[in-house]
Design goal:
- The protein has 16 helices and 19 strands.
- By secondary structure, it is of the alpha/beta class.
- It folds into 2 domains: 3-336, Mur-like, catalytic domain (UDP-N-acetylmuramoyl-L-alanine:D-glutamate ligase, 3-Layer(aba) Sandwich); 342-482, Alpha-Beta Complex (Protein-Tyrosine Phosphatase, Chain A), CATH 3.90.190.20.
- The strands form 4 sheets. The chain has an 8-stranded mixed β-sheet with strand order 5-4-3-6-2-7-8-9, with helices on both faces.
- Helix 1 (16-29) packs parallel to helix 4 and helix 4 (119-142) crosses helix 5 (152-166).
- It starts with a strand and ends with a helix.
- The relative contact order is 0.12.
Length: 484
């Protein structure tokens, strides 16, 4: 059976469990939440690791002694984290996975062995942390400290660690939220550090060059802790190598210390089929060579993530973790992730993906081109204000015959539909005359936009819904309902 990170089922409205959960959510959402602000700061005043350390101390240091894999990167960190966790679970380790953002429910962020935290567990965790946070708030007010008290993301990080300890996990995989150096997860002492990729995203916070962004991501590197890197340009690679050397860390790089070859799935619009991966690495005294590993996650970019996950497991094997080659194959072959080139239905083929920057948009276009027969495609697009939206639009729209633009409703960072529509038309005007005739439809309400895109599609065509985690979250349940 596939190892799927599930979406938790909601408690019944009006029940005691549902009411308690709503109170817990009100408490968390009442904190500063940079996932829902128009301006996302990234500075020592707003993001204080000392505050996060103090929170964990008051909670009894739940991360102390917990074997951790720490994962950062511009793109691919969520998939890589999930792949590592799946391999560890397949090897018999009870494994916690902290990821963000969630698609439908906050409990998804705190998964153990692929199962999301229950609503009851969430309520109990929040009840434990609430008085500690209140005390920290009072102390900050008395000291006239005007910097933010523990934030939403800091609290969810603490809740994840608490949950993992209470569930008695053997290991945890922590995905960085933003950047690395100042991210709340960076208080951990990992067994291994992973940096998946470096490309342009969050440039206002992390820097306008790949070197600057790499330096922020490499802020998770700890003295003596091995570092593994996925494929990336020479400029960020050099920055990471220098920081690793300064900290006395062994550096293992894709293309030098480990290699992979990917064979894509074919004709996915006609049948469900996994791609396959060959992997080879030399880590310490061990030489690994695995052939024909099934990979349910689609695309060359996911093969790069899978190779990095396997190299990470190989490093843990070097550290005497008991992980068999069978477990490595099983983890990659069974993992399914929602909204990562997720095929929702057929006739028409509907694909849901969370591509939200230029690099991930390129990866999406590549897999749609190589793994699907459909040449007539309809794009349903929403985007987020602090992204390179025009770059994303320019990457996507040449590959679609019709475009429906919308905006997600549950987060204020959405690009207005009219603005996004103008960007699409601008991108089309930059192309040849054939693309200038591409239909562009603006529908602000996402569910109406989705129904329109599906109504446009003929059975042999493909509809792709993408542009943001937030639009995927708002439409996934509806799309799944249409597939029944």
């Amino acid at each position: 059976m596939p190892h799927t990170l599930p979406i938790t089922d909601p408690a019944k409205p009006g029940s005691i469990a549902a009411n308690a959960r709503e109170r817990a959510l009100d408490f968390l959402l009442g904190r500063i939440n940079y996932e829902r602000t128009l301006i996302v700061p990234y500075g020592q005043r707003q993001l204080k690791l000392d505050r996060m350390r103090q929170l964990l101390i008051r909670l009894g240091n739940p991360d102390a002694g917990l074997p951790i894999v720490h994962v950062a990167g511009t793109k691919g960190k969520g998939s890589t984290s999930a792949l590592i966790a799946a391999c560890l679970h397949a090897a018999g380790f009870d494994t916690g996975l902290y990821s963000s953002p969630h698609l439908e429910r906050i409990e998804e962020r705190f998964a153990v062995n692929g199962a999301a935290c229950s609503a009851e567990e969430l309520v109990a965790l929040v009840d434990r942390v609430r008085p500690i946070v209140s005390a920290m708030d009072c102390e900050a007010a008395e000291a006239k400290d005007h910097s933010p008290s523990p934030t939403y993301f800091e609290l969810t990080t603490a809740l994840a660690l608490m949950h993992f300890v209470e569930r008695g996990v053997d290991a945890a995989v922590l995905e960085v939220g933003l950047g690395g150096r100042l991210d709340s997860t960076n208080v951990c002492q990992p067994a291994v550090t992973v940096i998946t990729s470096i490309s342009f995203d969050h440039t206002k916070q992390l820097g306008t060059t790949l070197a600057e962004i790499a330096a922020e991501k490499a802020g998770i590197i700890k003295p003596g802790v091995p570092v593994l890197c996925g494929p990336m340009d020479q400029e960020p690679r050099q920055v990471i190598a220098e920081i690793a050397q300064q900290h006395g860390c062994r550096l293992l790089e894709s293309g030098r210390d480990f290699h992979y070859h990917y064979r894509p799935a074919l004709h996915l619009d006609r049948k469900d089929q996994s791609g396959t991966l060959d992997f080879e690495c030399q880590i310490g005294d061990e030489h690994l060579h695995l052939e024909n590993i099934g990979l349910r996650l689609l695309g060359e970019h996911q093969a790069a993530n899978a190779a990095l996950a396997l190299a990470t497991i190989a490093e843990l094997r070097r550290q005497d973790w008991a992980i068999s080659l069978h477990a490595m194959r099983q983890g990659l072959g069974e993992l399914v992730l929602p909204a990562r080139v997720e095929i929702i239905r057929r006739k028409p083929t509907v694909v849901l993906d969370v591509a939200h920057n230029v690099a991930s948009a390129r990866a999406l276009v590549e897999v749609l081109t190589t793994d699907f027969d459909c040449r007539e495609r309809i794009l349903l697009l929403a985007a987020t204000r602090d992204k390179d939206v025009l770059g994303i639009v320019r990457t996507l729209v040449p590959h679609f015959s019709r475009v429906v633009v919308t905006q997600y409703q549950e987060n204020p960072r959405a690009v207005p539909t009219a603005t996004l529509g103008n960007m699409v038309r601008q991108a089309l005007q930059e192309l040849d005359d054939d693309h200038a005739a591409t239909d562009v439809c603006e529908i602000p309400e996402p569910h109406k936009a989705c129904r329109q895109a599906l109504a446009m599609a003929k059975p042999e065509q493909l509809v792709c819904v993408t542009g943001s985690f937030f639009i995927a979250a708002e439409l996934r349940r509806m799309l799944l309902a249409t597939a029944k």
